[in-house]
Write a structure and sequence with these properties.
233 residues, alpha+beta, OB fold (Dihydrolipoamide Acetyltransferase, E2P), Trna Endonuclease, Chain: A, domain 1, six-stranded mixed beta sheet, 3 helices
Length: 233
């Protein structure tokens, strides 16, 4: 998947100012950068780490937009605004066999009290409610979600269970943008309630997939890293 960002700059991360803003050093000049990823990113955003940034279109907020962070395993994409576009690429490429024959009907589909990333339709006319969650936390090869407690995430999972009971297929896709991931687990230590809800969803029939992608900086593109095992307990 080619990324259409002609201007990507290397920088040094200095410190996080708040949830959405940090300071970076570009060619010995200090600038502000927007952080779109809603996670804590504590294991990645450490002072002195190399990052990739692009000019922020809304210059009234920050000078740059944080794009990727360098880790011991390689570059980790942290631009969560790309997640849905990445999923569309995965769907169209046929990388998830459970979704072969499905097409997108609507993005940002409202079901009950929440919005979900996609409503899909199968070639046989069946409907599938699907949510995409980005995952950047990897410890010793284990990708974990979430990296901070998420009430919204738990609400999405229970909504998928409700959708299943209302005649939909239901699926959650964990999009892992960290190259060091070998397996995926819910983060029981950080959010036991979310982890329990995910296990309950699986036992009810919600399909759960973990997909890995690699960021290739030289070509500014993403390549497929495969479906990795999901371990819920």
């Amino acid at each position: 998947m080619k990324l259409n960002y002609p201007f990507i700059y290397r920088a040094v991360f200095l410190k996080r100012l708040n949830r959405f803003k940090c300071l970076i050093n570009v060619d010995d000049v200090i600038y502000s950068a927007h952080i779109h990823d809603p996670g804590r990113l504590n294991e990645l955003l450490k002072p002195g780490v190399e990052v990739l940034v692009r000019p922020h279109l809304n210059i009234n907020k920050t000078d740059y937009y944080l794009f990727a962070v360098h880790s011991i395993d390689g570059w980790v994409l942290v631009d969560s605004a790309l997640h849905n576009d990445i999923f569309i690429w995965i769907l169209n490429s046929g990388f998830i066999p459970d979704l072969n024959g499905f097409e997108i009907v609507k993005r940002e589909y409202k079901f009950m009290d929440s919005r979900y990333d996609f409503l899909l339709k199968s070639s046989m006319g069946g409907k599938c409610l699907l949510e995409v969650k980005g995952c950047t936390l990897v410890v010793d090869g284990v990708a974990m979600f979430p990296d901070a407690p998420t009430i919204r995430g738990r609400r999405h999972v229970y909504g998928l269970i409700d959708a299943l009971r209302n005649g939909y297929d239901a699926m959650i896709v964990f999009l892992i943008t960290h190259p060091g991931a070998r397996v995926f687990k819910p983060n029981w230590v950080v959010d036991e309630s979310f982890s329990k809800s995910l296990l309950e969803a699986y036992e009810t029939g919600v399909k759960i997939h973990a997909c890995k992608t690699f960021l290739l900086v030289d070509s500014m593109s993403l390549t497929w890293g495969g479906n990795i095992p999901v371990i819920l307990e």
